[in-house]
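Review session, final week

We close the course with one last complete record, chosen because it touches almost every idea we covered. It is OSBP1 protein, a protein from Cettia cetti with 120 residues. Go through it on your own first, then we will talk.
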Amino acid sequence: ENAENMYFFSELALTLNEPEERVAPTDSRLRPDQRLMESGRWDEANVEKQRLEEKQRAVRRRREAEAVEALEEGKDYEGYIPLWFERKVDAVTGELICVYKGGYWESKDKQDWSVCPDIF
């Protein structure tokens, strides 16, 4: 119903990005540029998207500099370590996959998101 006004997305597709309470502050549904876009505030959304992208670039540059510094000092550099997943090699395919390592649901139950980085 009313699909012509909803870009012909299915009801499921339209609800996938609906905000949900009590989720991690890193949940992509909380992206401020996305929220602005979905409320039709395109110009503000574009400015916010640029800000977020520059913030991501700055983090990447910092990590790259830390890796170079560690290399120069002969130290190991782990880089980014995901909070809720770990990289493993699939025993069947040999491909690198991400496997849930726990912690998200416990943090959600406690509403303790102190381990989450400030990504927005």
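Two points worth writing down before the exam:
Residues 80-110 form one domain.
Residues 42-72 form the longest helix (31 residues).
Good luck, everyone.
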